[in-house]
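Holo model, guanosine-5'-monophosphate. Inputs:
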Amino acid sequence: MSNNPDVARRGLLIILSSPSGAGKSTLAARLRAWDSTLNFSVSATTRAPRPGEEHGREYYFHSREEFRDMVAKGDMLEHAEVFGNYYGSPKGPVEEAINAGRDVLFDIDWQGGQQVRASALGKHVLSIFILPPSIPELERRLYSRAQDSKEVIDGRMSKSRDEISHWPEYDYVLVNEDLDETEARLKTIVAAERLRLSQQPDLVNVVRGLNQEFEERS
Ligand code: ADP
Ligand code: 5GP
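Output:
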């Protein structure tokens, strides 16, 4: 009899946060391309869609009234006001995925990170903060994305310092200088965290099997 090393495991809530423009959406997309079993938590938001964004893919776009309704019904795992708009993570799909042993990836700000850590699922959180290599480079990336007006970019730059101040609350912090290097580090972190003892409840059965094999020998 052999002991199966691929024992069932719990799902992780993988939180990526950063100041706007540091690269977390790009890194989240690369992580999803690497592992198609990763569930992405599609947030609800009251901000207007950017060109190319689709309802249900990047975000669920809602009016402020609809959003407040969802919060009042207890449908949100966390929610926050960011840059004058509401953003929140719908609870149902997250619970479903985690209970089925699948990981869920979140692109949320520090306020959302704090709330998910404090939630009932908090012990399964893996949180990673992405820093830009410099402030001029952060601004350059916001412009290179070519999706927001100068006013919107100025607003995001002025909030960056506050967002960055939350870096010590995270399990890991990556400086996203070279994109390929940061992607490789991110994958290493996720691969290792999946093997944590607390993520593998079925290990107890593997050890039980090993002990039984000891007994059969004696
Ligand atoms: P965020 O989701 O954190 O707001 P994005 O992922 O949208 O940021 O990245 C902002 C811009 O910076 C995009 O145009 C992206 O292609 C670019 N970018 C991301 N990471 C790097 C990097 N390491 N080097 C250069 N450009 C990057
Ligand atoms: P953007 O408008 O650029 O897509 O996102 C703006 C900020 O809102 C980013 O920092 C992003 O991480 C954050 N954000 C996106 N979705 C959520 C969410 O569901 N909850 C919280 N708390 N923040 C979110």
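DSSP finds eight helices and nine strands in the chain. The pocket of adenosine-5'-diphosphate (ligand 1) is lined by residues 18, 20-26, 141, 144-145, 176, 178-179 (CB under 6 Å).
Archived with the compound record.
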